Every structure is written in C-alpha cells, then in structure tokens.
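Team,

Forwarding the record for the chain on the shared tracking sheet. I've put the sequence and predicted structure together so nobody has to dig through attachments.
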Amino acid sequence: MPWRRSRQGSARSETAAPAIHHRSPDDFLAIELTPADFRVLVRVIEHARLCLEARSGSDAVTIRDASGAELPPLLYPRAGLALAWGCAGVPMLVSEIQHVEAAVINLESYGGHETVLCEGYSLLERLDELKGRAQQARTVDGVLVLGARPPRTPCPRYP
C-alpha cells in the first residue's frame, strides 16, 4: 500500500485505508510433520521445481507457485525452533498442504521421477491422515509453533 508524507510530516495513506485482517481460529490449524515427512516434502518440492524449470518454459514466479517452492522457506525456521525446543516435529498449517498438492500434480504432469512421485502421493496420504489430528498453533517471535512452550533455561548465578 503506498504511503506518503504530507507537508506536516505525518505518514498517512493517500489512496486507501489500511486493510484489517481478522484471523479465524481455523487460520492457525496445524499438523506436526515428522522429520521423515519433512525430508520427503522438501525432496518432492525440489524435484518438482527442477522438473518445471527444465520442461515448462514458464517464468520464475509461475514455477515457484506450481512447484510449491515457497513452502520450504516457511518451514525451515519452524524446524529450527522445533529442534531448539526439543519438539518431535515441524509445524505446518493445514492450509499449506495445497502447496504439496500442487507440487505432486505438476511433478506428474512434467515427468518427474517415479520414485519421487510415489513418495509425493504417499506424503499426501500421510498429510490427509494428519489433517484429522490438526491442532491449534500459535506464533512465537513470528515463528509458528504447536502447543509446546519454550524450554526453561536456568539462569546461573555468578558470585
């Protein structure tokens, strides 16, 4: 949204009022990917991206969207925080499953390797199963987390 400074020096919108986003509780329904699921997800998306780059002739934005390549950069901080907190898996929003679906469908359309394609379809079945056990997630410092609280770190006393 374009913002300009008026002559008085205050920032205000000259074109429209800022949009207010009301999030419903369903916006933060998440599942927990196991480390194995996470590795398969990254492998499927990377393979889909490579296949689309080699065979589709589309622009970079279309390839990113069609291969699901925008998902791993969202998941890496979550994986790091889960590892730091000692959690079992990586949180993924239920709404983000659509990126994996796009990757698998386009992987099939653009002649992806059969093994990766089979892994992709198995992952989709697993995600569908996990969706039935979705739980409410929250953000901590901008990173999506599930139920777990940060570990308590004792503060040593120095003499």
